[in-house]
Amino acid sequence: MSLLTERVSDRFSGAWRLLRQATGEAKWDEYVARCERDGVEPMSRRAFERHRADEKEHNPQARCC
Amino acid sequence: MSTSTANPTSSGPRSGPNLKSIVIWTAVAVVGAVCWAMLALSRGEDVSALWILFAALASYAIAYRFYSKFIADKVLKVDDTRATPAERLENGQDFDVTDRRVLFGHHFAAIAGAGPLVGPVLAAQMGYLPGTIWIIVGVIFAGAVQDMVVMFFSMRRDGKSLGQMVREEIGTVAGVAALIAVFAIMIIILAVLALVVVNALAESPWGVFSIGLTIPIALFMGFYLRYLRPGRVSEVTVIGVALLLLAIIGGGYVEEMGLADALTLSHETLVICLVVYGFVASILPVWMLLTPRDYLSTFMKVGVIVLLAVGLVLAAPALQNEAVTDFATNGEGPVFAGKLFPFVFITIACGALSGFHALIASGTTPKMVAKESQVRMIGYGGMLMESFVAISALIAASVIDQGIYFSMNASLGATGGTPETAAAFVNGLGFSITPADLEAAAASVEESIISRTGGAPTLAFGMSLIFTEAFGGGLAAFWYHFAIMFEALFILTAVDAGTRVGRFMLQDTIGNVWKRYADTSWRPAAWSASALVVLAWGYMLWIGVGDPLGGINQLFPLFGIANQLLAAIALTLATTLLIKHGKLKWAWVPGIPLVWDLIVTMTASWQKVFSDNPAIGYFAQASAAREARDAGELYGVAKTPADVDQIIYNSTQSGILQAAFALLVIVIVAGAAVTVVKAIRAGGLPTTEVPKVESKIVAPSDFFATKEEKEAVREWEASQKTPVS
């Protein structure tokens, strides 16, 4: 890969990572990575997202005017 | 930019400013000065809207680069070697170290809403200049300062809320007053926002069709994320936005679908729909409706703001209104009553200074900040962005033909509701327009445009002009409804979320005397608290739509003053805390905007309560109407004796609320004054600031990381990967 395409793909993957963080999708990636590091079997994506929805249920955030 | 990170090797000795930065900042200053000069000096000829746009951008850049840096370094003394609550208390939930750019987006999405869009549109009745000056100067010296300083103090206290900080740092009485004020102000804000939606959707089958469809779209997204493909947020947002656009286009065919009559709803019907919707939305699980709607709303928010900025540059429209109109000095404007001072400052509200932001800048956001220095970019920078939205809205309202602007924004009582009567009324104001012009404008967006008060339809009309000019294609009606959709989506999200937050506040407060009520998963408590909150704003909304004098004309000042009073509470807290920390010499930073805000809000409150001019004073209005009733006459634009009774009732109620808000703020300011005197005598007082813990993480402070910061982050990340043990 030339230096230029490498830089472009770096930028692209950086932007993609930020977008996933913004939507909260990165939480799952982080969780899986953490489980791998600790050698634990991760729960299913479905169960994980349910868990996150329950948190949101009890921490409402105001939207301003 | 600051390079102080936990890594000592990265903060070398600072050399003086280099030549490149001197040249750049001189150029920015010159651009700004030229734009301001053009705005100040051109009269009578066509003035391009771009002068406003670039005056704003240059001023923001300079304020951010210099003033916010001064506040961060000298006043707050942000310390990047100190661990933030996100680092110390990280739990992956509310305390969570978040990338600064992501957090900037989250914070901006939470603070920006319909307020900065609606306020400037109404303020445009006084001309473009007063609004422009206040939006820019106000944000630099008041709004952005408030957001940043409150965020910093909350961050130093593990993300405590505004109410908690007032109670602990000023006193119990002030704390209780703040709690009541926050709750009451939130109810007013929800009611006024809902009123904007009702006014935009009433008698508009296209709008009702498109907005109505957002509910099944959000439900679909919710089920998709829950059952079909859990967690795929970007994917479902793309699908949702596509469906949203189809819903807007589909709305153009309601006539052909035979739905036009069924979807032509009156104001009253819409109020009932909104109240029922608000109640259901706040008791449903959040994953079903609230969360997916928030994804849509955030996407639309960012997308439309970018689109509007691009559209403005491409279209480069000329301003149609005068720099300063006669309404600024005679106080007889049909959109809202009162003179430039204090009412322009009250009306613009959110785009320059918004007390509501203090609720978001304390609590949620500070629990996610990675490095202390980032409060500058997130708090100050986020508010500059909001101000930019307000400037865009002001421009959109100012490029509309003034005859159309006043036909849209004067109350139904004034315009009479037909093109002929509206044209006659507007001609009476001194603007020339014919009934045929009004009909042509209405036909272009396929909506009635007479007395579409509330700001949203005017903004949508202005945006449709700008987009049609910029992108071509004769799609004015599409753009109009696109803009209405964008605003209604914001507002409905704010109403959903606000009702829920209000419900939690109420449950928490009642929980102090009846423990079980505070349990948010206990249905009877959740349902009854939701019902109370919805009924509170629903009641205000009902009063607003039935007001013979025009609900927006009556309620918007109440909303504006309430919001600015909340800002007074936040700035009072900020000033008090600086003095308690022994930084009396910097107390002017939040102190000057505080004094200004108090002068504005107290003058406005005084006039609204005590003015003997019935157009301004609520009680004067009530007594004038009462006299008319006793004499067996009608009053003002009232058409029936029942209208007169309604005016008396509404005005008295608004007057009482107005006085109560002002009194609550006076209680808090008086409490703070006592604390301040004690603190000055003692040279500072202990506060609830959490003691310093050394930070271990490394992160850049500004939007763009410097070379040194990138290097420091890289070194730190590498050191994290090699296990210590």
UniProtKB/TrEMBL annotation, chain A:
Origin superkingdom: Bacteria
> Which InterPro entries does the record cross-reference, listed alphabetically?
Sel_put
Residues of the region (Disordered) are 45-65
Pfam families for this protein: Sel_put
Under what name is this protein listed?
Putative HicB family RNase H-like nuclease
Q: What is the lineage of its organism?
A: Bacteria, Bacillati, Actinomycetota, Actinomycetes, Propionibacteriales
Automatic annotation (TrEMBL), chain B:
Stated membrane topology is: Multi-pass membrane protein
Which positions, given as ranges, span the membrane? Answer: 21-42, 48-67, 108-127, 133-153, 173-198, 204-224, 236-254, 269-290, 302-320, 340-360, 380-400, 477-495, 525-543, 555-579, 586-606, 656-677
Q: Which GO terms describe its biological process?
A: cellular response to starvation
Report the locations given in the UniProt record. Cell membrane
Record's GO cellular component terms: plasma membrane
Record bears the keyword Transit peptide = no
Which organism encodes this protein? Nocardioides albus
Spell out the coiled coil positions from the record: none
User: Which taxonomic lineage does the organism of this UniProt entry have?
Assistant: Bacteria, Bacillati, Actinomycetota, Actinomycetes, Propionibacteriales
A Pfam family this chain is assigned to:
CstA
What InterPro entries does this protein's entry cite? CstA, CstA_N
Q: What is this protein called?
A: Carbon starvation protein
